[in-house]
Amino acid sequence: MLELVHIQKKYDYQSILDDISMVLPDVGLIGIVGPSGCGKSTLLNIIGGIDRDFLGDLLYNGQSVKRRLTKYCKRNVSFIFQQLHLIIWLSIKNNIELPQYFGKTMFQDKEIDVSGFNKLKISSLSLGQQQRIAFLRACCYCKKVLLCDEPTGSLDQQNAKIIMQLLKKESKEKLVVIVSHDLKKVQEYCDEIYEMRDGKIVNHTQIHASLPPMTFSDSLQKKKRLSYLRLSLSSLFSNKRRTFQMLLGFSLSLFCVLITLTMSQNLEKQIEQYIYSLVPPSSISVQSIHQSFSNDFINKLKTNQNISRVQLFLDDYEQLGIGFVGERYQESQTLFIGDDTSPYHHLALMVGRMPSHNHEILVSISTAKHLCQGSDYKELLGKKIYAWYKHKKEVCSIAYHIVGITQNTTTIDTIYQKENAYIELLKEENRLKEIKSHIGIIFVEQKQRRTDVLNELKYKYPQYKFIETGVSTQKHISSTMTQIKVVLYIFSSLAILSSLFLIGEVMFLNVVQKKKDYAIMKCLGASFFDFLKLILCESLEIVGLSFLIVFIMYFQSIFLLNQFLKEMIINGTMTLSMDLSLIGNVLLLSFGMVLLCQIIPLIYIMKLNTAEVLKG
Ligand code: ADP
Ligand code: MG
Is 521 helix (H, G, I), strand (E, B) or coil? Predict the structure, then answer.
């Protein structure tokens, strides 16, 4: 038994329903009739629990349900609306089965036949056909209360008669309430009629005595939980063009974020590598303040087990570069090289062999490519090359043979020679009267800790100054690096921010546009958690599909960029590498973002008055 106790409803201080009380039986066909605008639909919405903003109370089987309208609605009530409110982006089958998504049980198969048109789209159906779908959607899941707002309002006489007969049949086993402005149309079917005028009940007629409820003819108890993934997929593709645009926009912004982050990460790595190549990490520089290093000191260093190599820088000696022209120094024909003659024994050879004489050198592969300028670098083997240097304002050269090419690429072009080979060669040719050197680099054996060796040297040779190489350079560079990083992060943040904005707006619109559909689903029993599940699935699909596009674009562009870098950048050391953890993080983040951007409008929609949304 359903009881309405002193129901009042106002819109902006204007009274729409004025103290309405009625007692409705468990079975029977009840008509509420009255002129347009007298408040019939408002009353029906209150009975059905979709309008929650009213005064008075609603009792079901003697208990107030005003505080638990969602539950009451889900368990007992089904609607047939005048405007039908079918969801156009769902198939006919899914429209009929929709209440099952929200936990309603199908317990009766109705004898209405939809087989003639069940493959068509909702929008292409005739009104009578749509009416049948709406009827099935309501009746197959309705056990107790069926509410119909002008069910025949938009139908021709024949279809109206069919629907009224069906409803009459339904009313043998449940309560059916019909709202109509046309007394004549419903009069012959109704058991009771309430007449309304200006928000008040003005007349109540009992036509037939209420009967005890009939037992259910066929109870199917079909309860199937349809997968939300399917429903959300239909929802996602309800507007194919918009979805496509959204996916494309989302993918593009994700792609920008990924590329920006990859670039900044790689640049950082590149700079680190560059510093590393400038400053060997396991070396100690040594300086003599007054006179040149003594032979004795150099020999002692060479026999020290913790030291792999000692390199001296001659006073008044400056490397100019290497070139194939030996007659005269020509700057344009000379490839500038660094002073780097660091140890090479740990390097792998590409071709050739290690140097066994002072006249023999190795070059790095990047240097070899620069030297041969497009022709096969293997031809360099055995070639004579001149290393130009400036000594006491005089420019001279030393002739070498290239005997090998190492596999490593170097930021600055580099040759490798035997320890202090150039000093020996100069001495051989009598160009050097005596070795004068105030600065040198000591390379520490790889197994040793640099600070231990440094302390040992400081203790043994107090007359010289020892410093860990590159500490001050690194400090200086790292402060510059921080500045570069800040700029990079500002750019990446801008990319992320703009994409966030775009995604947020699109997701927001996506939910807001479905306001009415969500209101229909609410009437069919969907709770907040049902919508949450729906949105979760939709977010999964959006992110999944976008990432598919992003992956393809990302891998392709990294590949192309690397091709480009290989050809364009002079010393082919720069390659972009992909970071899977970065992709993973961006994936997770964007999923969270998409979800959040949908939950916020969802909460907003849930707070709206369902009855109002359906009207709009
Ligand atoms: P009926 O179904 O009997 O035609 P309704 O219940 O739809 O009438 O409406 C009853 C009255 O409430 C009408 O006069 C209508 O103008 C008014 N009304 C309905 N919704 C609103 C609203 N959102 N704001 C103000 N007035 C409203
Ligand atoms: Mg109405």
Answer: helix
